[in-house]
Recover the amino acids of this structure.
């Protein structure tokens, strides 16, 4: 491996820690940012939780599949909020017009990405832990009762969320703030395709092919299997992990290509549209 | 044995679509020198600095800093460089101390707490060290940006209009601190500016750019003599309006 390539992938923990510290300082200084992390997942929980309560009182299947919707909501929020946590931390640099300072510092792209990944988990924890406790209190749904399955679901979902976050950050670097809306909306493309609230079999045959090419589909199918038949589908998790490895590698390659393109285009010193 | 230049730019070109922002410029800066990059808006100063920093990839030619090719070998030297520009901000919600702490860690500054105390004393940041950076006045923000640019005691310091939008008193104060840093540390400084008195005071060499090309390159005193002018501002206007060649030809 060349010296240049080695230098680009070298990861110094102190620089990753410096960036994490920067985001923690920011969160600590801004209570609206913390409130925002909890507010929306909580709204989602209550809407879907009460809907599930209503349906389960009137339909036999849903009475047996208690927690299916709440489980879907919580897992969807891991996927969506994980990506948002990654992308918003990146956007903070663009909003602050600080990207130029970082890009001329010794911070490597891989260290920047590592710090964003850590922050996505931190932001997710701030939002999801209180909401998961509310799910127990209001609807008797204990997501932690899934045990090892929850760890497998979480690992696969967070990996997908990072892949999407990495690509979005690359597009933002290359195209500036004009692409900001992608950070908020791109994940919603996956929502109907990954079958968050319904089985894959519900989709037309051609859409099922697309659906099975996306790692979160396996997680949501696995969650339904666990809630409805109390069966943990390790095979689905393994397939999701393999797909995630491919998606993550592709996202990193895309990010580096977009960064190179941004250097060619001269967009790293600008933070406008 | 000749010393290797701190910055060596050779036939550097940057093309954006149909525009040649930088058009085949070459220069070399001796270690410890202070050089001014002068030119009107769109002359190519900022693009040149961006290529030296490794932020922009040249279309052709090369830019080397401390012997490292930019941007390919930038990680060999970025820890020995720094940059300040009024067009790049520091995170507004973080206090000055927090910002310096983060950047100090990024640059792996040893004894960071002492270094922050030291630089706060030098740049008189003490009274607002624990205030959010976004709440400071323009002059205070410039001092903080300068503190960030000096936190790692760089061997190569690039400045893009460091005193833009500052009142004369604050601008003079900033120049005095820059001079002091340069003398104490022997850093190489490249300064892009529109402020002629600033360049005259700080720089021992001036590179004048126009439409992406170097129009002239000399010591300020020699430029004044050659153009027969009393101030660099007059020389700048001669170059900007294309009167330099005519004047020299007439002489």
């Amino acid at each position: 491996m060349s010296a240049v390539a080695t230098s680009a992938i070298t990861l110094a923990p102190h620089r990753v820690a410096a960036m994490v510290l920067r985001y923690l300082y920011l969160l600590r200084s801004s209570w609206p940012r913390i409130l925002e992390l909890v507010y929306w997942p909580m709204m989602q929980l209550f809407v879907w939780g009460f809907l599930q309560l209503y349906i389960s009182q009137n339909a036999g299947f849903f009475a047996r599949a208690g927690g299916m919707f709440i489980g879907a909501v919580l897992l969807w929020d891991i996927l969506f909020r994980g990506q948002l946590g990654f992308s918003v931390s990146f956007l903070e640099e663009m909003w602050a017009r600080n990207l130029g300072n970082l890009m001329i510092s010794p911070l490597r792209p891989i260290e920047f990405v590592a710090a964003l990944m850590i922050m996505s988990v931190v932001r997710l924890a701030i939002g999801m832990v209180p909401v998961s406790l509310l799910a127990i209190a209001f609807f008797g749904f204990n997501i932690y009762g899934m045990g090892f399955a929850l760890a497998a679901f979480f690992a696969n979902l967070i990996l997908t969320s990072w892949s999407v976050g990495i690509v979005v950050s690359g597009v933002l670097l290359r195209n500036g703030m004009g692409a900001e809306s992608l950070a908020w909306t791109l994940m919603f493309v996956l929502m109907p395709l990954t079958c968050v609230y319904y089985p894959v079999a519900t989709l037309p045959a051609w859409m099922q092919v697309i659906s099975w090419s996306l790692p979160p589909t396996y997680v949501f199918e696995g969650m339904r299997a666990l809630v409805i038949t109390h069966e943990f589908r390790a095979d689905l998790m393994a397939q999701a992990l393999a797909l995630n490895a491919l998606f993550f590698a592709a996202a990193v390659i895309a990010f580096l290509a977009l960064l190179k393109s941004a250097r060619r285009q001269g967009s790293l010193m600008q933070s406008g549209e | 044995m000749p010393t290797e230049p701190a910055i060596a730019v050779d036939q550097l070109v940057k093309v954006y679509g149909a525009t040649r922002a930088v058009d085949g410029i070459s220069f070399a800066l001796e270690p410890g020198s202070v050089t001014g990059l002068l030119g009107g808006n769109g002359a190519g100063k900022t693009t040149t600095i961006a290529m030296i920093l490794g932020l922009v990839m040249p279309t052709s030619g090369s830019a080397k800093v401390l012997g490292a090719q930019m941007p390919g070998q930038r990680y060999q030297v970025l820890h020995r460089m720094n940059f300040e520009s009024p067009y790049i901000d520091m995170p507004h919600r973080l206090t000055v101390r927090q910002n310096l702490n983060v950047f100090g860690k990024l640059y792996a500054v040893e004894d960071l707490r002492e270094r922050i105390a030291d630089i706060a004393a030098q740049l008189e940041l003490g009274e607002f060290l624990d205030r959010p950076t976004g709440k400071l006045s323009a002059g205070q923000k410039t001092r903080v940006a300068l503190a960030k640019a000096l936190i790692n005691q760089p061997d190569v310091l690039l400045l893009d209009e460091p005193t833009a939008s500052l009142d004369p008193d604050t601008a003079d104060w900033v120049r005095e601190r820059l001079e002091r840093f340069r003398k104490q540390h022997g850093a190489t400084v490249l300064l892009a500016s529109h402020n002629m008195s600033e360049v005259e005071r700080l720089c021992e060499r001036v590179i004048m750019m126009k439409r992406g090309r170097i129009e002239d390159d000399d010591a300020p005193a020699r430029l004044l003599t050659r153009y027969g002018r009393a101030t660099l501002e007059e020389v700048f206007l001669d170059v900007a309006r294309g009167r330099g060649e005519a004047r020299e030809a007439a002489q």
